[in-house]
Design brief:
Helix content: 55-70%
Structural class: mainly alpha
Order of helices and strands: HHHHH
Distance between the termini: 43 Å
Largest sheet: none
Number of domains: 2
Shape: globular
Number of helices: 5
Length: about 140
């Protein structure tokens, strides 16, 4: 009797809302993707790490039926990715204070939300740069 293929984590095409990350995680762990979506939103709002983690999975995990991920990292690229993630983690601690210093109390949603927005902008810039490098 042949041995079954090992399970492989991929971003799924069915049940996807944005990039198939939550539906892929739900399929892999046999959990409702809605729970994973709620967890990502909670992490994005309260800890500020939901968006960067989602983007990392989106870029580094292949889509269902694809041979490779959108960004294929070489061994030397992992050091760069880890350095960027460390900088983002350090920045997420200081961004709310930076937002408060820049905008004061003029931002109606609070400095913490502005910090998360700034972190999202930094993540988008990193993603665009990595995408340009991958081409």
């Amino acid at each position: 009797m042949p041995e079954p293929d090992p399970r492989r984590f991929v971003r799924t095409r069915r049940g996807r809302m944005i990039g198939g990350v939550c539906s892929g995680l739900g399929s892999y762990f046999d959990v409702d993707p809605l729970l994973i979506r709620i967890a990502f939103v909670g992490l994005a709002i309260f800890a500020g790490v939901g968006l960067p983690v989602y983007l990392a999975i989106l870029l580094l995990v292949p889509e269902e039926g694809a041979e490779r991920a959108p960004i294929r990292l070489r061994r030397s690229s992992w050091a760069l990715v880890l350095a960027v993630l460390a900088l983002l983690a350090a920045a997420s601690v200081g961004l709310p204070e930076l937002a408060r210093a820049i905008f004061g109390d003029a931002w109606p949603f609070g400095a913490a939300l502005m910090g998360v927005a700034l972190l999202g902008a930094v993540c988008a810039a990193v993603w665009l740069r990595l995408r340009a490098i991958a081409r």
